[in-house]
Design goal:
The chain is an alpha/beta fold. Helices cover about 30% and strands about 15% of the residues. It is built from nine helices and seven strands; from the N terminus they run E-H-E-H-E-H-H-H-H-E-H-H-H-E-E-E. The strands form two sheets. It has a four-stranded parallel beta sheet with strand order 1-2-3-4. Helix 7 crosses helix 8 and helix 8 packs parallel to helix 9.
Length: about 210
């Protein structure tokens, strides 16, 4: 069984790394330990995550920028800590397995389970208050989609999901527009048009 540890602050994340990094992994094909949130990551933490014997992974939530007020981040974090917030581009650069998640139902916004708000936040780093935090940690749309699909499946041990290739389950959604041609500010407006499980349509916007 995979262990998921909730850790947001830098001290909490460092504690998880210190305790787990030298353990022998007990799972094959997926991380034995996953850190939920990992909101503040320093350069040294990134190096330790990359080199951890156990194979630590991160499920993180830049969607919080969109759903929460910006002021508390700036009020309670130092300038150095603010630069450590949700470093998804750095995780990708270091080839550390990470996924994006809504954190639903522990989220207050209108559509807490919509991945498109999360993609929007990961790409733009736009906050609910209209500002931006760590814009240089933004990632391309295609990378954000992979974090919600391929990498999330790998992290969870779902070997037949996450990508569409022969012998995999044909589970996918068709969107109401081409997500790759949207302006960054319009990504949150993308909606599913239909959902397919095992190659069979199980839901359609037209039927609502």
């Amino acid at each position: 069984m995979q262990v998921a540890v909730h850790a947001m602050g830098d001290a909490a994340i460092q504690r998880v790394i210190d305790v787990c990094q030298d353990l022998d992994p007990w799972l094959e094909g997926q991380p034995s330990v996953r850190i939920e949130h990992a909101s503040l990551l320093s350069d040294s933490m990134l190096k330790e995550l990359k080199g951890a014997k156990i194979g630590l992974a991160v499920s993180t939530h830049p969607i919080f920028f969109f759903g929460e007020e910006e002021d508390p981040y700036r009020q309670f974090l130092s300038a150095d800590q603010l630069k450590m917030a949700y470093r998804i581009k750095s995780l990708d650069k270091e080839n550390i397995l990470f996924s994006l998640s809504s954190d639903a139902p522990c989220t207050p916004w209108a559509e807490p389970d919509s991945p498109f708000y999360g993609i929007y936040a990961a790409v733009t780093r736009h906050t609910a208050a209209g500002g931006f935090i760590n814009e240089d940690e933004g990632i391309p749309v295609v990378r954000a989609i992979l974090a919600y699909t391929r990498d999330a499946a790998k992290m969870g041990g779902f070997v037949n999901n996450g990508i569409l290739t022969p012998v995999k389950d044909a589970d996918f959604v068709i969107l109401d527009r081409d997500i790759f041609s949207q302006k960054a500010e319009d990504l949150a407006k993308v909606k599913p048009a239909s959902t397919w499980i095992g190659g069979e349509k199980v839901w359609s916007q037209e039927k609502k």
